[in-house]
Write a structure and sequence with these properties.
Radius of gyration: 17 Å
CATH architecture: 3-Layer(aba) Sandwich
Number of strands: 12
Largest sheet: 8 strands, mixed
Strand content: 15-25%
CATH superfamily: Phosphoglycerate mutase-like
Shape: globular
Structural class: alpha/beta
Oligomer: single chain
Helix content: 25-40%
Distance between the termini: 39 Å
């Protein structure tokens, strides 16, 4: 089983939708996704994610299931104390040296750090975590201190979750057991990028999640659309 975590297309943030460029990106993505053994499409309930997901849904005939817990975390902001950034910024856009200070926390993947607004960040991350565990439970997968296990062999098909930059990296931090600040600091997900996790099954019921690609936009290259820097704040000129 493969899980594809997908950021929405180029955003029209004021209208929570896609720009014309974003629509072209989503169409190119849909052509890529229809070639996969896709059986399920999930999406954040936010407009820009749903709009992106619907292009793939239309090409595959698979309905979109909304997941409230994977919505973007844009309400979580902090002062970057920077002369080149607005005040405030969403927490994943804080300067790298600040995010680095939050990487040592293990509890709640480091979301409890005082660098972030509290208790809002800890509570929101906990909501995402609980939603993810329930999503896995419905797929007959359990996560315990001993690792991941499944009740039966996993099907060899694909599932897509259409989401956002901040929440997508937060989900990856849970899957890979890496502090969320480390991913927010070091990884950027381009619009319509695909990050793929293989749920590798062994010893009958044990599962090891293995990241096989991150932020891939190969579907945009042939369209000349792979230079979109939406979401980057530094050195993008």
């Amino acid at each position: 089983m493969r899980l594809h975590i997908i950021r929405h297309g180029d955003p029209d943030y004021p209208n929570d939708n896609l720009t014309d460029l974003g629509k072209r990106e989503a169409q190119a993505l849909a052509r890529r996704m229809e070639r996969l053994p896709l059986v399920r499409i999930c999406s954040s309930p936010m407009g820009r994610a749903l709009a992106t997901a619907r292009y793939t849904a239309d090409r595959t005939g698979i309905p979109v299931q909304t997941l409230e817990w994977i919505r973007e975390m844009g309400e979580l902001t902090a002062n970057p104390h920077s002369s080149v950034l607005p005040d405030p910024v969403v927490i994943w856009n804080l300067p790298g040296h600040q995010l680095h200070k939050a990487e040592g926390g293990k509890e709640n993947q480091g979301a409890n750090s005082d660098l972030f607004p509290q208790p809002q960040t800890a509570n929101r991350f906990r909501e995402l975590h609980m939603g993810w565990l329930e999503w896995l439970r419905q797929a007959h997968i359990q996560v315990t201190d001993e690792g991941w296990t499944a009740d039966a062999p996993l099907a060899g098909n694909d599932v897509a979750i259409f989401c956002h930059h901040g929440s997508g990296l937060a989900l990856l931090s849970l899957i890979m057991d890496i502090p969320v600040a480390a991913l927010w600091r070091s990884i950027w997900l381009p619009p319509t990028s695909v990050s793929t996790v293989l749920l590798e099954q062994y010893d009958k019921h044990r599962i090891n999640p293995r990241l096989v690609c991150i932020g891939d936009t190969s579907h945009l290259s042939s369209e000349g659309l792979d230079n979109n820097t939406s979401g980057l704040l530094y050195n993008i000129n």
